Amino acid sequence: MLPLSVKSFAKINLGLLITGKREDGYHTLETVFAPINWYDVIEFSDAGDISMSCSNAQLPVDDNNLCIRAAKSLQKLSGCNQGVTMKLHKQVPFGAGLGGGSSDAATVLRVLNDLWQVNASSADLHLLAVALGADVPYFLEIKGLAYARGIGDDLDDLGFTLPYYIVTVFPEEHISTVWAYKNFYPRFDRELPDLKKCVTELSLSGKKEVLPVFENDFEPAVFDHFPAVQLVKSTLLGAGSLFASLSGSGSAVFGLFDREDEALAAMKLLPEAYRRSLTPPGFSMEQ
Prior knowledge:
2 domains; Alpha-Beta Plaits
């Protein structure tokens, strides 16, 4: 039934290790994606063509927007001539490393595949998702924790969730992924930890001593250029966070907490202008 409103949840990266650079210019990585309770809302309505509007005037609503590109890619794949108008209520900050745009694109693919009765296969949808962005397959295919390698599109659904409260903070600094990849400090020759094993031990066995292995390779350069971002991490750790880290290429920072009261208290220590969210233990993107 239309109009239809759907939530598009964001993610954090529990560890992000940049492992090399391919001949095509893309960097390879290893990471663990975890969903958080911070989301955009997309409203779908019938239309003769494909169009969209957005609550944030700073974002384009033409072919530069991933939602439009997702809809047109599915239309081209299927050969259908149906349209849609989308109203994006933007709440997840952009330039934050939370994957908001990728999540929106995945939502469009998933919803329109059903509404237009395209019935595209999982393999075809995966190819469309990869073409839109490396994070899009995660949001399209997995609801909880996922281990990712390659450019982030080679995914293992771990089948479980994090048993912690997650405080996610956006310190009002927009950092582009292009800038982050140009400025990070490479460490391609190190011995890599087994992120998949470590997150399994953390989530299923409560082995908190593995937390230090979840480094983010963007952090040193981001902290050098954006000291306010580093201060968020220090604040969360000072407030009792078990672990805190940059998410993706930033500038969002998250902290893990055992107790809700500690998480709420930590949020109160941050500047009022900083947007933030609280995710409960065991959260997944099931709706």
